[in-house]
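Dear all,

This email documents one entry for the complex benchmark we are building for the journal club exercise. For each entry we list the sequence lines for every component of the assembly. Then comes the predicted three-dimensional structure of the complex as a token string, followed by one or two observations. Please use this as the template for your own entries, and keep the labels exactly as they appear.
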Amino acid sequence: MLELLPHLLHQALFGALAAAGFGVLFNFGFRALPWCAAAGALALAVRTIGQDLAWSLEGASFAAAIVTSCSVSALRKQLGPACNAVALAGCIPMVPGAFFGQALLGFLSVTAPNLVDAEATLIIAVQSLLRVIFTLGAIGAGLLIPAHLLRNQDF
Amino acid sequence: MEQQQDPVIVRHRELERIANMALRAGRIMMECGASVSVVHGGVGMIARGFGVEDVGMRSGYASLEITVHAGGNTITRMMQVGRLGVNHRLDQAVRKLAVQVSHGGMSVDEVEAEIGRLVRETPRHPAWVVAVAVGIACASFGRLLGVDWAAFAAVLVAGTVGQYMRHQLLHHGVNVFIVAGLIAFLSATLGGIGSTLLNSDTVSLAMMASILLLVPGVPSTNAQTDIMDGYPTMGSARAVWVLMIMVFASVGVWFAEALLGLRSL
């Protein structure tokens, strides 16, 4: 387990940076940005542990979103109604944008003239698209279920 | 003169002001990235804070409609909604105002003035700060995807330039989908050229990481939230919007890869 620690810390660090960077884009205040970074670090740490345990990307993302949403909900007194938004910012680094791009580029490739291995290209594109759909669904459900069950206030 | 003193007309005018002001608050929340249930909740709180007995709402992707009923009078009004983005601080400020209004004690003029003040004075990070932050975020995404350190620097620059140009283009009113295509082409080209010059072994990944600023994470989550909250029409509209953005972004990457000789047109 100790040999996995550098990789875990690497993923958590860059998860934190990605979440904080998008927090700035979403106009979070400077006081909320460290919470976004912490949520991003937690989400990526949990997802990395899950994947190291040979879980699928979708399963690990679901677990990470649930843990992040529950943890942020526990800080409702400090964060107020913004807690759901902080959890969402923390999970942004898990959004499979690269797979989405790969899927669409794959579909574009299938229509190209003189395609050599159309079946393989199509299967990779479909796999990527399905991965996007299931991972986005896992993140969304992981964020929403605790927020609904714990009755997080929107106002 | 006679018409102005008609109590029904006077009450209709009052209801109209309440409806329009509540819709304005809802429009701001919607444009700032709130889900439909939050928008409906906020608008309802504001309207009821002025004594409205029943509130009915319908949300489309580009408009909001409200029907308010009080004292035997009912009116329906509609308002256009602009481009949907994300502005956390303004969203939270309007939600706070909705809570304040729901407790009563504020006049319509006061609430309208307060909404105007929030729109004018809620702080935003400077464009260059956002650009650098997004560049760092893209480079971090790149590391999570597995780009090497040489490509990290290239993605950081490509993401920063891409975000700054996106801000400028959107500010000048260019269509959001065209912006997605142009920025994907620009960022992917910069990321590809930069990582090649820096002898990276992960040029294709760097090009993909450079365009991750375009991935609409909040709208895609909101799409799901809206569907789960019972607003499948709005959720579907958001999902289609997300898909279209990604199609344009992918075409931009496609052309960038063709330009750099990584793919044939």
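Observations: Chain B has a mean pLDDT of 94. Residues 127-259 of chain B form one domain.
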